[in-house]
Each structure stands twice: as C-alpha cells, then as structure tokens.
Amino acid sequence: MQNSQVFLPAEWHEQSAVQLTWPHKATDWRYVLNAVTSCYIDMTMALSSRVHVIIVTPNPDQTHRLLREHLPMKHFRHISFCKARTNDTWARDHGFITLLAPDGPRLLDFKFNGWGEKFPAKFDNCICRRMAEKKIVKGKYEKHLDFVLEGGSIESDGKGAILTTSRCLLAPHRNQPMTQAQIEARLLEALHAKRILWLDHGYLAGDDTDCHIDTLARFCPDDTIAYVQCLDKNDEHYDELRLMEAQLQEFRTMEGKPYRLIPLPMAKAVYDEDKNRLPATYANFLVINGAVLMPTYGDPDTDTQAKERLQEAFPKHDIIGIDCRILITQHGSLHCCTMQFPKDMKNEEIATAIDFIP
Fold it and tell me: Residue 229 and residue 323: Cα distance in Å, rounded?
C-alpha cells in the first residue's frame, strides 16, 4: 500500500545539492575535452552560487585545481567532490532519484545500462552505491537494480503525476519482457505516484535515449507543461511534434482540468561534421533554487524566444543561459548533465561529501 506522504518532488522543490559527473580523457569527450570542460565550469559557477554542488570524478585533486583557476574562492564553500570511476558524464540518468518521506529522503538506485545497452555503463551504474557507501548524501538507500530507469525518462509534478514516453520505457533492452501495464505498476509503486501520463509521440533526431521526456516536455509550476513545438512543415519533426502537442492538449490534471501549455521554440537545426542532426532542445533546462538554467545554442533570436517562454513558465525564477553547443555533440544537453537532490524540509542539513578538498 502506498504512503501518500512519500512522494517524488517536482524539480522546483527547494534543493540541497546538484550532482555533476565531470568529463575526463577516458570518456567520449576526450576529443573535445577543453571545450566541454569549459561548459562544465560555466555550469559549476552558475550552480554553486545558488546550491551545493557535488562533483563526481575519478580525479578530484585535478578537478579541484582546475576549478581554482576559474571560480572565486567563495564558491568553494558550496562545492564538494566524490571520487569514483566513471564511463561518462550524464548524471541525470545514472544518479539517484530522490523521494521525500516523513522519515527523511529515500535514495532510489535504479539500474543504468547505457540507454538500452548502447554504451558502456558498468562504472556509472555503481556511482549511486559509491555515494551511499561513503554517505555522500543524506537519506535511506533503496536498491532497485532489477529495473532499468533513467532520470531523464520521467517528470514529476510533485503531486503524484509522472510524465514519460512509451518509446523510451518500452524500448529494447530496458525491461523486457515486461508489458506497459507491468512497467506502469512498477513505477507507481517505486515512485509512490498516483498516475502515469504516457506520451506516445515526439522525438528528436540524434537522440540516443529513445525519446527521454526531458528533451520534449516538462512539468512546470501551477499545472503547466512546457513542450517543444515545431511550426516548420518542412522540418522532419513537424508531424510527430504536432501529434505530441495534440496529446498534451488532451491530458487532464487530477482535478479534471486541461494543463496550461507553453510551447518552446524548436531549436535551429545543428549538425555534426558528418551532417547528422544533433538533438538541440530548449526543453532540457534545469530548475534550481531561484533560477532556471537554460541551454542556448548560438542563435540569438530563438535563444531569446525560449528564454521569454521559460520566464512565462517560471515567473519567480531568474532565467540563466548556458551555451550547450558542445554538449549536443554527444547527444545530450544541460539537464542531462545534472541531477538534483531535493531538500528535506524537516532537516535543513545540506548534502555532505567525503573527499572534500578545502
């Protein structure tokens, strides 16, 4: 039986910390390591001014020295390090999914298998256990390693609704031979949710995740959903995103009302050196304490339009742009790089970490 006092908070719930998993030369970033490191420094600067930052890295001394060259000393009061071997940097998908409960946070560790066994993930799949063993963050560890679930594949409104996509959760090499009904039952139980809203349409070219929800549509305060809208009939995404939009229009809140929908512009097409389209999306924003970190893609007009739409969705937050053009070269963006830890409102102790370097 579910405990209604246990819940998966919305991302705009006050946070104690945000995790970054740092790029290094043994990851796929090795060919553009300087460029992606610069982006991670920008993210660390923006985050550490508002929330504690836990940096997971196999080289904490080296990462600390690097940050000392770029960040004012005052930021280091809000940065700590966890030493761990890593395959890659996508903390959203290998990090803890945190529930809040009367007895304190619950740290859910699901299996991460490289988005359906597409990429190596054995080190990344151990990061949560490493953090739990070393008491990196406060909370009760829950083992769910018999079920594949990535943080980028689910959205919570903090009131019991989970938004996800059938293309991801039913994709090959995730949880077969489970049916959609069985997967839904497992999600409802593990996340203490009341209902699942399944999107059956929408995709981004170049996406490795099989349509993570955080690339397409996001819950926002006051029963709002921000989503990617395509208005160009010549764009390959037009038909699918129109079908997704129509499905969002049919969704209803627990009270039976339609959601307030805020369309985000389709990012201008960006291609890699082989002319393959990259998954640039403004839906991949991160909500932190008092601010929304928004990915930008070097197109001032569309970047500005996206910022205005997000300001409409989050009128009480500052909207801060982070240039994420380098991130999409490895088929992710800003939200994919991060995982937040909600604050336990009954205990104001923030996340702590060993391997801290003063």
Answer: 21
